[in-house]
Automatic annotation (TrEMBL):
The keyword Magnesium applies. One of its GO terms (biological process) is amino acid catabolic process. Converts 2-succinyl-6-hydroxy-2,4-cyclohexadiene-1-carboxylate (SHCHC) to 2-succinylbenzoate (OSB). It holds the Pfam family Enolase_like_N. InterPro entries: Enolase-like_C_sf, Enolase_C-like, Mandel_Rmase/mucon_lact_enz_CS, Mandelate_racemase_C, OSB_synthase_MenC1. CDD domains: OSBS. NCBIfam families: PRK02901.1 (NF002782). The keyword Lyase applies. Its EC number is 4.2.1.113. This is o-succinylbenzoate synthase. Pathway: Quinol/quinone metabolism; 1,4-dihydroxy-2-naphthoate biosynthesis; 1,4-dihydroxy-2-naphthoate from chorismate: step 4/7; Quinol/quinone metabolism; menaquinone biosynthesis. Mg(2+) binds at D138, E164, D190. HAMAP family: MenC_1.
Length: 330
């Protein structure tokens, strides 16, 4: 079911959230918040995505606002700290934003940096978390096969929980998995799930040990839950640098999965200087609650994007809505 565009626009608010640390090259995150019959929901595809790709994010927004979430099987979700590609000396300050987390995901392979930068950053994270910490890295598909193999050798002494999207293609992931099997370090697929024509292809090809699932790009909580069931692999629910409302969507997905053996990438509200919720879904004691946060209109006013950006987002929402409706008509 797709609500009318007028219903979506009636409550849509475009916000611009300042971040504490540059992440994915951005320092301000924009989002549309929409109030549906089931509560606030979020539409925030990254600005560089085309309308086709952004339409899955609108499906997700509608799913969360206009449909009851599946029955939650847990009421809190353990989360990881997310460490952007910062210099090693900034690691303690980043980790301090994620109180109580035993797991950290560290960005590596950033353009313009070297493997030495990655090694020093990962070392600083391991030093801070100690032997009981869990350290995973995310290369965002930026290594080729040989670079990945070489980098994983260099990072293995820090005892990696898994390596997320080391290379771009399913074939590369499958080959890398063969090459590093003897090391016992699992490979997790992220972009190969959320940006693929077939999100199950990587699992079918046996090219990953773990799937990363994100509610917005996968078309919502219900669709993503189904992808996890069909993939038949352990899943880690992560986010897309969402506001507390988008994080709540992810938390409802994580809460509905029959098994959740890894900490989830849902702590990223900690990277925002401000947020839309009265009680932001920042990690406390290493977890976030499974709730629909209340959004204050005062905060929406404060964080409102300027006229030009607001129009840009509402136009984009309208184009994606048209694509959704056309899809239904086919
Ligand atoms: O998984 C996490 O720890 C947080 C989310 C995250 O890393 C992310 C956020 C925005 C865009 C891409 C990614 C990613 O996992 O690659
Ligand atoms: Mg990732």
């Amino acid at each position: 079911m797709v609500p009318d565009l007028a219903d979506l626009l009636a409550t849509s608010r475009v916000v611009s959230l300042p971040m504490t640390t540059r992440f994915r090259g951005i320092t301000v995150r924009e989002a549309v918040l929409i109030e549906g019959p089931f509560g606030w929901t979020e539409f925030s595809p990254f600005v560089e995505y085309d309308d086709e790709e952004a339409t899955a994010w609108l499906r997700a927004a509608i799913d969360f606002g206009w449909r009851a979430a599946p029955e939650p099987l847990r009421d809190r979700i353990p989360v990881n700290a997310t460490v952007p590609a910062v210099p090693a000396d900034q690691v303690p300050a980043v980790l301090a934003r994620f109180p109580g987390t035993r797991t950290a995901k560290v960005k590596v392979a950033e353009r313009g940096q070297t493997l030495t930068d990655d090694v020093e950053r990962v070392r600083a994270v391991r030093d801070a978390l100690g032997a009981e910490g869990r350290v995973r890295v995310d290369a965002n598909a930026l290594w080729n096969l040989d670079e990945a193999e070489h980098a994983i050798h260099a990072l293995a002494p820090f005892d990696l929980e898994y390596v997320e999207q080391p290379c771009a293609t399913v074939d590369e992931l499958a080959e890398l998995r063969r090459r590093i099997r003897y090391m016992g370090i699992p490979i997790a697929a992220d972009e190969s799930v959320r940006k693929a024509a077939d999100p199950l292809a990587v699992a079918k090809a046996g090219a990953a040990d773990i799937v990363i699932v994100k509610a917005q790009p996968l078309g919502g909580v219900h669709a993503a839950r189904r992808i996890v069931a069909e993939a038949g692999l352990p899943a880690v629910v992560s986010s897309a640098l969402d506001t507390s409302v988008g994080i709540a969507m992810g938390a409802h997905l994580a809460a509905a999965l029959p098994e959740l053996e890894f900490d989830c990438g849902l702590g990223t509200v900690a990277l925002f200087a401000q947020d839309v919720a009265d009680e932001p879904l920042r990690p406390v004691d290493g977890s976030i609650p499974v709730v629909r946060p209340s959004v204050s209109s005062a905060r929406l006013d404060e964080l409102q994007a300027d006229t030009e950006r607001t129009q840009w987002w509402l136009d984009r929402l309208a184009r994606c809505h048209r694509i959704l409706e056309r899809g239904l008509a086919l």
